[in-house]
Amino acid sequence: MLEMKLFLVILLSLTSISTGFAQSGSDRVRSKIEFIKRNVDFGFRRFYQVKIIDTDEANAFSLGTLTLVSQKMLDILDDNELLAVIAHEMAHREKYHIFSRSGMIVGGAIAALLDWHSDIPYSERLSGFNEDYQLEQELQADCYAYNWLLQLKKKGFAFEPADLNRATTKIFGIDFGDVDPTYFEDNPAYIRFQKVKQGHSKSCEN
Ligand SMILES: [Zn+2]
């Protein structure tokens, strides 16, 4: 249901006319994409589109060539945190994690259907697949973003992998470095936070 609501918001935003305010937001995002392309050694794709969506939820999505960022995200993140989030979304794009947020339902449903021999009820399998599949892609996108930020840092720019976790702390309103692991060990955001803290490996391929 939430996914559907989100999907409708995205659809509506795609058909809406950009305001001047939204335009300056997309310029801010675009400049981050260009900065990363210019300064990180990686064979980035040339074509990137940016759209700002007007929700009060701090979120960003990658829909193939299109990177969507919510206005709320732009409001709460500083330039370092925003660049970290953009790097993460660019990794989704580069790794063909199409519909990497809202579209997870589709990917998970297909995977769950293929596993029809299982005795576990379909709905349970569906949610399990969605979570695993989504977390796997999120961790891979984090891994690329981590290494790109590390590259920028080594080149003397004022960016670092920890910017990813600073962004997470603001987006979720929780400092995952300072919570009781007992309650959070299954939480995808917590798992991602800890992985960034420990350090991702140089290779992000499995
Ligand atoms: Zn992601």
Query: What is the number of beta strands?
Result: 3
Shape: globular
Helicity, as a percent range: 55-70%
Q: What structural class do the secondary elements suggest?
A: mainly alpha
Strand order of the largest sheet: 1-3-2
The oligomeric state of the chains shown is: single chain
Our count of helices gives 9
Distance between the termini: 32 Å
Radius of gyration of CA atoms, rounded to a whole number: 17 Å
Number of domains: 1
- What are the bound molecules? zinc ion
Uncertain segments: 102-117
Largest beta-sheet characterization: 3 strands, mixed
Mean pLDDT equals 82
One letter per element, helices H and strands E, the order comes to HHEEEHHHHHHH
Strand composition percent: 5-15%
